[in-house]
Specification:
mainly alpha; 11 helices
């Protein structure tokens, strides 16, 4: 290889000052590429993640809710069953959108299209890739949640003006799942291992006080459920849409702030280990 070819093949130096070789300050390029690819993808696949919680709301919230009546929530207030599970399904919408982008899409880009290898061979660093991909997953989760929030409003399931604050809460939830989802996927090597992600998501969806209060469980199980990230998202959004505000909601916010920070740090470190070291 000639000297000219060697210079051409060498990675482009990163000009970012914040994190040196890890960050070039151009995560928007990764996000723009993802948005362009999404526009040309199969929208049936994209919409499937949004329709699932909507069908749960119609079948359980409206159908089964007419039989159940009211449920005791928060500080003991009685609310309709549909209004009880709707905010939980709103949090699930954000989770679904973020997880779909940050797991299966990332897995394909990492192991089949080799997209990230090409990105980090340019001026982009692992932190640019992590931020761009997490932002893309966050937008998908926010899109799902915004559509679901509109449906809730149309059905009269937003019981307080504080439901307006559910949207930034949803963005935080989506960011948390997107960052951790990408971090976990960076360790996955086979399709069989990817199934373990779904194996974890299903019980979390069913048992995170989504369809009934956490108080129905024995105390040891309640402690286990409170470890689940979805539980904190469900309780946060439920408090905002019903107007039942409690100081403990700040702990739910803190949970997701820590979740986002850890996810970004581990994703960046993992991408650096895979493609730079």
């Amino acid at each position: 290889m000639t000297a000219l070819e060697q210079r051409s093949a060498a990675p482009v130096p990163r000009s970012g000052r914040l994190l040196g070789a890890l960050y070039a300050g151009n995560a928007r390029a990764v996000l723009a590429r993802g948005l362009t690819a999404t526009r040309s993808s199969n929208w049936v696949v994209v919409l499937s993640g949004f329709l699932e919680p909507v069908l749960y709301l119609l079948s359980l919230g409206i159908g089964l809710g007419s039989v159940i009546g009211t449920v005791r929530a928060g500080s003991g207030a009685e609310i309709g069953y549909a209004a009880y599970i709707a905010p939980a399904l709103l949090a699930v919408s954000a989770m679904n959108g973020a997880i779909m982008d940050s797991t299966w899409n990332v897995f394909f880009k990492m192991h089949f299209s080799k997209l990230y290898q090409g990105m980090v061979s340019t001026s982009l660093g692992p932190f640019d890739v992590a931020l761009g991909e997490i932002a893309l997953a966050l937008l998908r989760g926010a899109l799902y949640a915004l559509g679901f929030l509109v449906i809730m409003q149309a059905l009269g399931l937003n019981l307080a003006w504080t439901a307006l604050l559910a949207l930034p809460a949803i963005l935080l939830i989506a960011a948390g799942f997107a960052s951790v989802g990408m971090a976990v996927t960076s360790f996955v090597k086979t399709f069989q291992q990817m199934e373990w992600i779904q194996f974890f998501l299903l019980p979390m969806f069913l048992f995170s006080a989504t369809f009934y209060p956490i108080t129905v469980y024995p105390p040891p199980i309640q402690v286990l459920v409170q470890v689940f990230p979805l539980y904190h998202g469900v309780e946060l959004v439920r408090g905002l849409t019903t107007g039942i505000l409690e100081p403990g909601m700040l702990l739910h916010v803190l949970y997701y702030v820590v979740m986002v920070a850890l996810g970004i740090v581990f994703t960046t470190r993992r991408l650096r280990a895979l493609f730079l070291d």
